[in-house]
Amino acid sequence: MPIDWTDQPPTDQPWQSVRLLRCPEAAALSGITLDYPMSGCPTHYAAGRTRPCQGKTCKYCLDGHTARWHGYLPLYNPVTGRQIVLELTLAAASDYRRQISAYPSRAGHKLTVRRASKKPNARVLLSIEPAPPNGHPLPDPINVRQYLEHMWGVDVDPTEPTRSSDRPTEHKRHSLRTPPGDSPRDVANRLAEACKP
Ligand SMILES: [Zn+2]
Q1: Which residues neighbour 30 within 8 Å (Cβ) at sequence distance 6 or greater?
Q2: How far is the CA of 18 from the centre of ligand 1 (A)?
Q3: Mean pLDDT calculated for residue range 124-135
Q4: What are 72-95's pLDDT values in tens digits?
Q5: Global pTM?
Q6: Which of 50, 33, 167 shows the shortest CA–CA distance to 107?
Q7: How many CB atoms lie within 10 A of CB 66?
Q8: Averaged pLDDT for residues 67-74
Q9: Which residues have CB atoms below 5 A from the ion given as ligand 1?
Q10: 160 alpha carbon to ligand 1 midpoint, in Å?
């Protein structure tokens, strides 16, 4: 297939500046919640990356990789004006659902994740609290499912029922292994300024 050269960067990728992040090991990560439901699906950690489980024909399942459910949420960083997609463990996703239900709407609250200890695989603690009003309107959330499909390079067959869901599933417990991601320092540096009152 020939290369599709262009002399302009594409302008139709609203998520090109969006980062996919998980809870750092040694710092808290905060953002403002947006009006988008948590989306999640079973995933595999294979070949150094998190990949979506693709059901009956999933090559990772066939290769014996354990599936772990992960939830994904868009968060807004009011300092950078950018959105991130936060990956949540099953336990943190359950905490999110329980806590967000106490608010009349999903959007506009300060969400913070941190680890219970300094161990890399320590449990992720999630808290939601009212965000101080700053007078700026919240952006429209990016479409997290489309973003992840783009990131994962998944061809979505519209005739296939999706395995995504907006609530955690309990049928498979995740292992304690955490995939390597951004270093804690990288994440801390980028997001230390987020959500200052
Ligand atoms: Zn699979």
Answers
A1: 75, 110, 111, 112, 113, 191, 194, 195
A2: 26
A3: 89
A4: 999 999 888 899 999 999 999 999
A5: 0.73
A6: 33
A7: 16
A8: 97
A9: 53, 58, 60-61
A10: 15
